[in-house]
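dumping this here so i dont lose it
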């Protein structure tokens, strides 16, 4: 179609692309000053029944406004062909990105999958199911955000139309079908098809390939229905086990074994990204500081960027010390399982716990231990299921209260966590873990003296908690302005774990607050060495270098930090410094 042709009120400016579903054009927005739009002219006339479903979904999509969905603005007919008018996304498809860059880093993959899951959860709430998720149908805009496009509006215009041409070649990308699609079970094509699709797209981001790579229609159907996909780590060994489990659960053959919804999947991904660092993953960004010596920090021009840092996670399973769990006593002697639990080898213990509970679902202690293992693996939603089931029948079970309180704290559900922890400490005032977790919550709430008392008790009752309790006690001292006491605790943490990123950052901030800028720099140097791909760490070092007169080195750090993470919390300060300097 030539430029200038009118399709309804929309004037064609250029042809953008052609695919199996239709032709896409860039069109002028009929609203004066409005941005250009994308118009897709669909190929094929729907039958009456399919057209009713098409109209219902169009009306739902017209109501939907979500940053993760390519918005639908209008729908109509040109001649006897339907058309859809959508946002024009300036960017590239995820498939183009994978072809240019190869597999994506695991964290970027998980972030994009989370954005897709959140968008589809909103769609499902309106009764709209995509049905054809694949990297070609996920656009990445200029800000790096995923936007889901090309919904199944056109795909199902004719229920009798196969996804394969008469010659047996694929319409679209093979390897991304859910088993119920491959087997033709149209009655099952609901939201769980999209859960499978998100898992398949996540698989592709991690490995640069779909879960299956068939060479024929027969092979595609056979593999999708009966063969398990290789775990992503077979092709990408750096993928964390926790993320691999999420991906593989999405790809379960039985829809009932997948996440129950896109919302449930988004919860799991959010917990993975914002809970404790996943196993076998590269170190996450440093947990950043606390409000201390505000006048000194502001005088250096640094206060704004470190007073606003996010809440630090416990230094667990990363370069710092691990938070020990209270040993439990299974109801029957199970030497191998006991050894795995004592070693906190959650990955190996979990299958044994599953088997044991399948044999005896009423074993309370086994269920507590599985909740504990799931907590250790970052599977917080599943941990809450196990621990909640125990507490429903045994409300005074101390370890169930302890572990559920810890999980709720990680999820920032602090009021709920306090209910469990207060009950635990009423039952057992000497429970070190209870004091530790309550101390963290009290510190976050600004109850600094009470928090310090809890950390004192935790240290007195369980020396194994020394690193994490001192770490958080130092933060409480920082917020009270007790720099000497804070430094004493931080120095002890670093004596036990010299590469603890949170303690390194805290020590750098104490030294900055004391006016010892040169002494703070080695800690930030080590942070950058430990986390070379964390943009905010480089920005922090760059700002300090500029204060020390190392202007060129500092500006180089700022530029590199913005390249790595344009959305870092201290990015605006970096830009201001680069523009102003």
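and the seq i came up w/
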């Amino acid at each position: 179609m030539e430029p200038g042709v009118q399709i309804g009120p929309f004037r064609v400016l250029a042809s953008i692309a052609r695919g199996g579903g239709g032709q896409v054009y860039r069109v002028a927005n009929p609203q004066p000053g409005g941005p250009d739009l994308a118009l897709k002219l669909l190929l094929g006339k729907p039958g009456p029944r399919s057209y009713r479903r098409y109209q219902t979904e169009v009306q739902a999509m017209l109501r939907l406004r979500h940053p993760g969905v390519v918005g639908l603005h209008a729908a109509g007919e040109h001649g006897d062909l339907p058309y859809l008018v959508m946002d024009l996304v300036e960017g590239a498809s995820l498939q183009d990105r994978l072809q240019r860059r190869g597999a994506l880093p695991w964290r970027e993959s998980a972030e994009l999958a989370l954005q897709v899951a959140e968008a589809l959860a909103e769609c499902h709430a309106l009764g709209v199911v995509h049905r054809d998720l694949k990297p070609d149908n996920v656009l990445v805009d200029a800000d790096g955000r995923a936007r889901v496009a090309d919904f199944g509006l056109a795909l199902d215009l004719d229920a009798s139309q196969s996804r394969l041409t008469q010659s047996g070649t694929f319409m679209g990308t093979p390897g991304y079908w859910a088993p119920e699609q491959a087997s033709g079970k149209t009655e099952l094509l609901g939201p769980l098809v999209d859960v499978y699709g998100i898992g398949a797209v996540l698989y592709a981001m991690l490995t640069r390939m779909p879960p299956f790579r068939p060479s024929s229609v027969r092979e595609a159907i056979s593999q999708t229905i009966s063969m398990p996909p290789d775990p992503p780590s077979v092709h990408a060994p750096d993928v964390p086990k926790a993320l691999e489990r999420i991906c593989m659960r999405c790809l379960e053959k039985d829809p009932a074994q997948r996440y129950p919804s896109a919302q449930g999947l988004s919860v799991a991904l959010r917990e993975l990204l914002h809970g404790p660092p996943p196993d076998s993953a590269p170190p996450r960004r440093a947990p950043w500081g606390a409000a201390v010596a505000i006048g000194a920090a502001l005088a250096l021009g640094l206060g704004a960027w470190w007073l606003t840092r996010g809440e630090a996670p416990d230094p667990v399973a990363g370069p710092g010390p691990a938070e020990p769990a209270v040993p439990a006593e299974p109801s029957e002697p199970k030497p191998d399982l006991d050894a795995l639990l004592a070693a906190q080898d959650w990955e190996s213990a979990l299958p044994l716990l599953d088997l044991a509970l399948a044999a005896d679902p009423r074993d309370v202690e086994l269920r507590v231990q599985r909740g504990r293992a799931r907590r250790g693996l970052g599977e917080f939603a599943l941990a809450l299921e196990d621990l909640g089931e125990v507490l429903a029948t045994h409300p005074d079970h101390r370890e169930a209260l302890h572990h559920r309180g810890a999980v709720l704290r990680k999820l920032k559900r602090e009021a709920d966590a306090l209910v469990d922890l207060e009950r635990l400490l009423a039952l057992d005032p000497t429970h070190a873990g209870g004091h530790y977790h309550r101390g963290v919550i009290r510190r976050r709430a600004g109850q600094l003296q009470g928090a310090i008392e809890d950390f004192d008790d935790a240290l007195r009752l369980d020396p194994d908690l020394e690193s994490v309790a001192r770490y958080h006690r130092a933060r409480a001292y920082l917020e009270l302005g007790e720099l000497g006491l804070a430094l004493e605790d931080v120095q002890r943490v670093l004596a036990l774990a010299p590469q603890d990123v949170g303690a390194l950052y805290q020590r750098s901030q104490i030294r900055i607050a004391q006016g010892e800028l040169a002494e703070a720099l080695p800690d930030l140097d080590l942070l950058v060495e430990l986390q070379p791909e964390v943009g905010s760490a480089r920005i922090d070092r760059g700002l300090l270098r500029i204060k020390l007169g190392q202007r060129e080195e500092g500006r180089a750090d700022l530029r590199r930090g913005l390249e790595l993470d344009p959305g870092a919390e201290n990015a605006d300060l970096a830009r201001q410094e680069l523009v102003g300097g």
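Residues 91-274 form a domain with the Transferase(Phosphotransferase); domain 1 fold (CATH 1.10.510.10).
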